[in-house]
Design brief:
Elements (H helix, E strand, L loop, with lengths): L8 H8 L12 H14 L12 H8 L3 H13 L3 E4 L3 E4 L4 E4 L6 H7 L4 E12 L2 H7 L6 E11 L2 E11 L16 H9 L3 E12 L2 H7 L6 E11 L4 E10 L3 E4 L7
Parallel strand pairs: 3-10
Antiparallel strand pairs: 1-2, 4-5, 5-6, 6-9, 7-8, 8-9
């Protein structure tokens, strides 16, 4: 089998067991197993999106119990080398993505620039009176009608971000008639409403994912994440959007270019 497809199961078993695990040494068994799996991933013996052998099979190979294997696998998930898909198994993750912050782009545009296909799972959408905190960020009166759009954002079918966007309904009436499981919000705003997004103010905060949030990403409870809050402005400095985006911390690194003052 070629390197692109990775090793088959028997080849992988032989690679992982080139040396027996040290049962008497100071390094815990789960750490030894973790290091062997990591080396196989980094050497592309198990390429991106390859399904990991089951815990039962790995336990048989290494001659340990399944709990020991699970510890090794959970550490690799927490560190971003693997990801779990409920009901389907555990898979090798892509390398972390570097996300520059100097450009105002959509998730769809970001993924397209990487040669990845963006898609969305629509979690909820509604028109509601703006709560005070949302009204403040949108610079409208509390109780003003706003559109709320909540989506799970995916890249090549891998969950990457939980995004909740709020927009003044008066600036985009009928917005919920569009299928945002398929369409880019920014593209709809530009093409169908003639709105030109000019700039944004954004903050980033490191957070710990809640159990529910971790489940959306197929990550263990307590995994790290990044919370981004963005206020987006039109050319006339009118606020058009406030969005909270929760990114999985195991797959993202944010990049900022710094220039020395003159």
């Amino acid at each position: 089998m070629g390197r692109e497809a990775g090793l088959n199961l028997e080849e992988l078993r032989r690679l992982l067991l080139l040396e027996p695990v040290d049962r008497e040494g100071p390094i815990p068994l789960h750490m030894q197993i973790r290091e062997r799996l990591l080396k196989a991933i980094q050497a592309s013996h198990m390429p991106s999106h390859r399904r990991l052998p089951s815990e039962r099979l790995l336990a048989e190979w290494f001659g340990v119990n399944r709990l020991t294997v699970r510890q090794a696998v959970q550490e690799l998930i927490r560190q971003g080398y693997l990801y779990a898909r409920p009901g389907k198994g555990t898979f090798v993750a892509r390398a972390r993505m570097h996300q520059p912050l100097q450009w105002l782009t959509s998730f769809t545009e970001d993924m397209a620039a990487r040669g990845m296909k963006a898609s969305s799972r629509l979690l909820s959408q509604e028109i509601l009176p703006a709560p005070p905190d949302i009204a403040q960020r949108l610079n409208v009166a509390p109780g003003t009608e706003v559109v709320r759009l909540e989506r799970l954002r995916l890249a090549d079918e891998e969950p990457m971000a939980l995004e909740t966007a709020y927009l003044p309904h008066s600036r985009c009436p009928g917005l919920l008639s569009f299928d945002f499981s398929q369409l880019s919000l920014y593209e709809v705003l530009r093409k169908h409403y003639g709105l030109r997004l000019q700039r944004a103010e954004q903050t980033i905060q490191a957070v710990v994912l809640s159990p529910k949030e971790a489940r959306w990403f197929g990550l263990p409870r307590g995994s790290p994440g990044f919370l981004l809050e963005r206020i987006t402005f039109l050319e006339n400095d009118e606020v058009i959007e406030f969005v909270r985006s929760l990114y999985r911390g195991d797959r993202y690194q944010f990049q900022v270019q710094l220039i020395a003052p003159k």
